[in-house]
Amino acid sequence: MGIWENVLLAIAGLRANRMRALLTMLGIIIGISAVITISTLGSVMQSFISGAFSDLVTMDSINVYSTQKPDPARNYYLEEDDYSIECINDMADRFSDDISAYAISAGTASGTVSDGKKSRNINIKGVNEYGIKADSFKMLKGRNVSAEDIEKYRQVCVISNRQAKTLFGSVDNALGKTFTAYVKSDNKSSTMRDYTIIGIYEYKMPAIISMLVGGRQDNDWNSDVYAPYSTICRETNTEVRFYYFTVYAKDANKAPEVAQKIKEYFDETFYANNDSYMCYTEANSQQLDQINNVLNIVKIVMSVIAAISLLVGGIGVMNIMLVSVTERTREIGVRKALGAPNSAIRIQFIVESVIICLIGGIIGITIGVSMGMIASIIAKATIAPPIFTVIVAMGFSMLIGVFFGYYPANKAAKLDPIEALRYE
Amino acid sequence: MSTVISLNGIVKRFYIGQPNELEILHGMTFDVEAGTFVSIVGQSGSGKSTLMNIIGALDRPTEGKYLLDGLDISTANDATLSAIRNKKIGFVFQTFNLISRTSALKNVELPMLYGGIGPKERHDRAMELLRIVDMEERALHQPSELSGGQKQRVAIARAMANNPSIILADEPTGALDSRTGRLVMDLFHKLHEEQGKTIVFITHNNELAAETDRIITIADGNVINDTGLRNKPTAARKLSQSDLPEGAAESGVAAVAGKEGK
């Protein structure tokens, strides 16, 4: 008796009890579709969050911080704990083979911009030529802050396309214009200075922020004005010191390695005699790895919860198969009397249970994949159909069929033909 | 004339070793020759059903030896018993026991399905058998669409599917009215006379038993009367009850048993 004949026999058995077979399948359908939907949603979420993260930072960047040692000698902070421009330049020379650039931003000042009619509050960030890149913005018009601007303490700045529109009507109109800003500093009263606009950058709200504020792109979340750090530090009367800066690795893949080397370098040189502070570096790719790890755990936890519903479905299959065996005791007796060996009876019921699970699995996969696709369209994330999950789900639903079908099938196979024939 | 059924000192006990140990058969001994239409008659509780279960290879005797077509049933394992039931015995039950929601044709094919016969051959032979029992036109009907007599005729066709050594009929007319019962009985006579089938007919209807070649009466687990062969076997009865040459049937069973044995 071939497997195909068993399949036909099982299908005939299931057709005899359509409603029951369908309800039993429902458990498997819900279980499988839940697992697939959730794992697809997990992938959508993962791709969305890592996409958003990539919007904010680039993979070649390494963040360098000044941080307190685990057992600091003092609990207060001194200016010398932060990086000086000299030590950063030394580091850049030392690692010229590994890094392409570094971005610094210092002496953030707050002020008010006015064109005579309108005025608005702004942040002025003192940066070097990579500061705008470090904030993940791109130049739109004009030029970036240059090394020369920094050296000569020029009163120049780069503003966002939106500020340009608000203050000057259009991007083209803003370029070359001068505006006045009142800069407040800690130990000086407000200074009024003129800044010439040398460039416009394109303000783009990072996807993650856009998601948090509900996608309102006109929301004026962060719209900094960038100026040479030397100029701003002079305005705010602060020494040029950096608690934090960003380094760009030439090879993004080597960023974690370079990060480690930079940490060792600073700890051995700049922080060699510091009793309380040390260097801490972190490559963005490492941060992304950490985020992905967390997301993977979330995904696994969610999938496990979905898998529980699959388990419940499987138990439903077993329950129905047991009912079916009891109900068909007499039929089993007749089959045995006609010469069906135990193995044929066992296979008949296992095949029935596998078919229930397989059909349920196919329907569940279809629903799950569709739901996942809908979710990925809504989230605007391009997620390939989870082929691997689909294959695993197919295999798993068959396995459920065999696993939860075996006990009832074996019970049927072991029935005594005489008892079974006598069963009413 | 060869012996199909050979029972020698068959004892059947239940609840062995327990306080309520029960001996149903107390050492039955008789042979049935090939081509005989034999009836086993007895009251309820006489041990008829237990004897039928043993003859039908559904159960093994506690003591004694039972040879069916020369094969020892007494010591056979489950897989061998399945194969023997499939190849050597055709059951006809009082309550027909057709598989519901399955056509008459599929019901007749069933023993051949378990016997490993291919779909085409199965279908052709099942149709031929349905023709013999005059149920050809109802081949695709389900049991629920058939009358009692029609169901029993399908069941008889099914019993003959694998060309068994014996047809074991347990009260086959018990659930039928006398007229339909008569038709079924005539069918058994026809099979016996035209096809030379060995038929073991279990009944408590003495009138029907009187039509058969031999009547074995049992009571309280013993044979109390055996008429022996009352008629000379007809020419038809002399025909081999199987198309297979001597010994082929046994080897067929052995092969199936070996394949399905664990």
The number of helical segments of chain B is 9
What overall geometry of chain B do the principal axes of the alpha carbons give? globular
Strand elements of chain A, count: 12
Biggest chain contact: A-B, 22 and 31 residues
Domain tally of chain A: 2
Q: Assign the CATH superfamily of chain B.
A: P-loop containing nucleotide triphosphate hydrolases
In terms of structural class, how would the helical and strand content of chain B be classed?
A: alpha/beta
CATH architecture of chain B: 3-Layer(aba) Sandwich
Which CATH first-tier class of chain B would you pick? Alpha Beta
Q: Which strand-content bin applies to the residues of chain A?
A: 15-25%
Spell the H/E element sequence of chain A.
HHEEHEEHEHEHHEEHEHEEHEHHHHH
Tally of helical segments of chain A: 15
Structure description:
The complex is a heterodimer of chains A (424) and B (262). By secondary structure, chain A is α+β, with helices and mostly antiparallel strands. Chain A has two domains: 184 residues, no CATH class; 160 residues, no CATH class. Chain A is 55% helix and 20% strand. Chain A contains 15 helices and twelve strands. In chain A, the strands form two sheets. In chain A, strands 1, 3, 4, 5, 6, 7, 8, 9, 11 and 12 form a ten-stranded mixed sheet that branches. Chain A has a two-stranded antiparallel ribbon with strand order 2-10. In chain A, strand 7 and strand 8 form a beta hairpin. In chain A, helix 11 runs parallel beside helix 14 and helix 13 packs antiparallel against helix 14. By secondary structure, chain B is of the alpha/beta class. Chain B has a single domain, classed as Rossmann fold (3-Layer(aba) Sandwich). Chain B contains nine helices and ten strands. Chain B starts with a strand and ends with a helix. The relative contact order of chain B is 0.19. The interface between A and B is medium-sized, with 22 and 31 residues.
